[in-house]
Structure formats: C-alpha cells, structure tokens
Amino acid sequence: LEEEQNMPEVKIHWNTELQELKRVLRYFSEMDFYKKNNYHLSLPENVGADSSEEDITEEVSIEYHPEKFESKLLEITSDWKRIETDFFQNAQKVLQINALQEYECLITQYGTGGSYNPPNQIIMNIRSKLFGFYAIAHELIHLLVNDLIEQNNVDHWHKERLVDHYFSKILHVDRYQNIPDFIDTKTVDVAFETFSLQGARRVILELQKEK
To answer: What is the pTM of this model?
Structure first.
C-alpha cells in the first residue's frame, strides 16, 4: 500500500484560454514540419495561414468552451486512474528509468493528437480520434525517455518507433502508428529486440552507434 501511495501521479485538467492561443500560434509558426511529416492538425475553424494574430485570438476565444467536453474529460480521467499504478510500475521496470512524482496532463482542442513538454507535461487533444488513456501513456513514455533521446540525437521517426515498441511492452497492447514509407525503422527494431531487457539507455546507445 505504501508503494502505491508513492507512485507517480498524473493530474488532468483543461488548458487555459491563453495556453490554447499560444498552442495555436506555435503550430502556425512550425507548420512546415507538420506538413512534411503528414501530421493532421485540428485548428480553429475560421483561421488560416494568412490570419492575423488578432483574428486567431478572437477565434480561439469564441471556441473556448471546456464545459462542452466535461463528460469526455471525466471518462478519460477515470480510465487513466484505473491503469496509472500498473503503468508506472511496468514502465520503470521495462525502461529502467525512474519517473518523476507528478505529471501534468493538459487537455486541448488543437494541434496533433498529443504532445509533450519536458520534464513533466503532456498535452492531449480531445478532438483527436486517438484521444484516450492510451494516448496519455504514449506521451508519458516520450517524457520518460526524452533525456536519452536528446542526448543521443535520435531522429524523429526512430524516436516514435521506439516509443511504440515500449508502449507495446509496457501495456501489452500492439498499437503502432503509421510511419512514412521513406523511413527505415529496421535499426530501431533490431536494437529493441536485442537489448530491451537491458533498459532504454542500452537500446538508445545502440541506435547512436548505428549512425
């Protein structure tokens, strides 16, 4: 019981209106990356690449109604809390990385399905068809391995493939995202298969050697 009480916790709540605005503006500023990698973004309805910041601010304000999604928010919170302890116990065992004590999950209606801000913040898009407690787990794995990923300059799609492998191992669920055909993930697959029992650091160091 004491071990469960000391388990990491994810606090789930809505973005503020200002946070929503900053998120939308950031996506517009980085649009080339998202187009190049075939990401689907949900953005305010009546804005485009040529919209002024004033227009975007007004549209975000018009669309800011968290209460519309209250039942969906309660559902994901309940679903996540059911698996939270098991997730962190398995993640720490598989990754051999200690989690922080607290993580923040911000709910948005814009951008990609999910994203993360180190060291302890994830953002989930309530409009995404992938919205759910599995998406929280995916972004948390990103946070847990982020330092190793950055230290070893792991490529974007290799990082995503690795997180999918760990997701499968930690939650015992096969959910692999579609990776562009021009990306070769074989080195990631081999490194994971060969060294995953030795923890994430060993796997990621092996990827660095392959460069």
So the answer is: 0.88
